[in-house]
Amino acid sequence: MTDRIEAAAAELRPLLQEFILWAPDNAPGSDPDLIGPVALWHRLEARKDVGLWKRGDLRSVLLERMPQVVEDPDAAADGMVQAVRAYLTFLSATGRLSPGSDPLPRLLAELDDVEDDFVDAMEDMISERDWDEEEDELDGDEEDESLGDFEPFADEIGALPTIRLRPDAELAAAAREVTLVRQARDLALWVGTGRKVGEQTLLSDDEVDEAVRTIGLPDAGNIWNLWNLAIDLEFLAPDGNDTVSVDSDTAAWPFDDDEDVLDVWMLGLHSIDYGDPELDDDDLTLALSGLTRALLVRVLLNGGSRSLTDLREELAEAVAEYDDLGPDAWSAAGDPLAPVVAWLTGYGMVTVEGDDVTLTPLGTEGLVHMLDDEDIEIDARPAIDAMTALDLLSFSADMSEEEADEEFAAWLALRDPAEAASELLKAAAEEESDALVRVQAASLVGSLGEAAVPAWLEALKEPSLRPYAATHLTQMEVEEAPEPTQADTHWLILDMWTISAGLGRPEFVSSLHDIGPAPTLVGLLDVIWKIPHPHLEELLEAIGDAHPDRQVGKAAKRALFKARSGR
Q: Region (Disordered) spans which residues (predicted)?
């Protein structure tokens, strides 16, 4: 899942950079920085096409997802709807609103309809936050450290070697086999539609017995954890004051679509807390709260596997340090790790062989996701054998040169150089708006020498790659290669400017000065507007705004007018 979020963010980054450049002149009252979460979760949960917007998408993203992910509800309440209005206008005005989208007026009308509900949701978050802060003040300046907190281990987690994640297809296949999800589905199907529940006990004793038999449980000991899991997974939901109903899609589990499967599994990820021991005494139960998370993080820090004997010894000490009642709770639980391991095994996160408990690929993915949620840094990437060319290019952007070279060498070792060149250039062609991916791909393929010639020749057919292909083929003196044209050179310059613009204003201005003095840049702007580069217009706008020389600014505005009018 983490790699899917990273891929979606990388896909959106160039488009959002364009919007940020577009907004000051076209939507001056909006804050373009607020659009990121909306665009990301629209891509992840509503539409695979970032430019396709339909009625209902706005309600789903703004009212259902944003209250879960917004970090600053004050800023969101003040400006997120306005930012979305500007973003949709930008998509429409620049031709990026995909065919099949609802017309802009209809989308904006829906945005008006949900605005009050969205602001109310943000204000509820603000009230909750203020209430929590008041409670924290009453409790004292220092928060008690929880047994299941990951933060005390942040430095150790950050120092771990790179963790390799399996591809979504493998993870989804594993998630389809998860016992607890299947049992939660069966429980929800047994509940059916419009089942009345009691005020004191949701189900009668007879209903509990019937549910246990239907699901095939050995006893009723886990029935309420499964009930809560079914709610977490959205298999089951209240539909009135005293009734609950199964969701209409529940019977289709396990779903065919890998993304849908992983989305469901992730919804129940925080159910791992249900693995904590439950004792007759509430105070003793509280003393063991967080035990499941405490076990997981220790297994991770030991390389993904650890003996239960060592875990029992270390966790018994941790429980005693965490709570004065810890030793009594540990003793009263009998084997405190038994329910922990049972739940984690049932949720597909660990396996147990002999005395060793080991994280599964699904468990590793989930734990990395939980750490991300808590802003704890961890070096996690796709496994080399599962890494696509686009994965390699995307992750390399955030690595040191030495580390990126090592990653490329490992990836290259699993394929023929000619095949690697073809994969890299095809990935770059798919990301036409991402200049950084294109430059990285060209650099890596360029290092492959003669083996890359067939891939370079094929890349001549792609407008975004032709300048790189022509340049490299000419340098290698390939006979049938065309000489780079002036248009090719101009494309390379526009790619360079696009990358520098993403680094900040000083870097962008520096890249403009690299072209030469103002007259040279003016001469270039008089012709470069003809290049059909995906970032041409926003770059010309940015040059007009950022360059200190007035003549350059005028030339940039003149070029922008010509580019927009096609003259």
A: 127-147
Whole-structure pTM over 0.85, yes or no?
Answer: no
CA distance 98 to 94: 11
Query: Which residue from 187, 277, 176 is spatially nearest to 229, judged by alpha carbons?
Result: 187
User: Among 178, 304, 191, 234, which Cα is nearest to 64's?
Assistant: 234
Q: Which residues share a beta bridge with 246? A: 236
CA distance 148 to 442: 46
The dihedral of CA 94, 95, 96, 101: what is its sign? positive
CA angle 391, 393, 397 (to 5 degrees): 115
Q: What are phi and psi of 169, to 5 degrees?
A: -60, -45
Backbone angle region of 161, left / alpha / beta, with phi > 0 → left and psi within -120 to 50 → alpha = beta
Token representation of residue 75: 């800023």
Q: Is the dihedral of CA 543, 545, 546, 550 positive or negative?
A: positive
Q: For residue 96, how many other CB atoms are within 10 A of its CB?
A: 16
Establish how many alpha carbons lie within 13 A of residue 128's alpha carbon, considering only the half-sphere containing its beta carbon.
10
List C-alpha distances in Å: 459 to 7, 435, 454.
23, 15, 9
**Radius of gyration of the chain from Cα atoms?**
28
Report the share of the chain in percent with pLDDT over 90: 67
- Model confidence pLDDT, tens digit, residues 169-209: 999 999 999 999 999 999 999 999 999 888 778 899 999 99
In the block, residue with structure tokens 């891929």? 7
* Structural contact between residues 171 and 368, judged by C-beta atoms closer than 8 angstroms: no
Tens digits of per-residue pLDDT, 230-275? 999 999 998 877 889 999 999 999 999 999 999 999 999 999 999 9
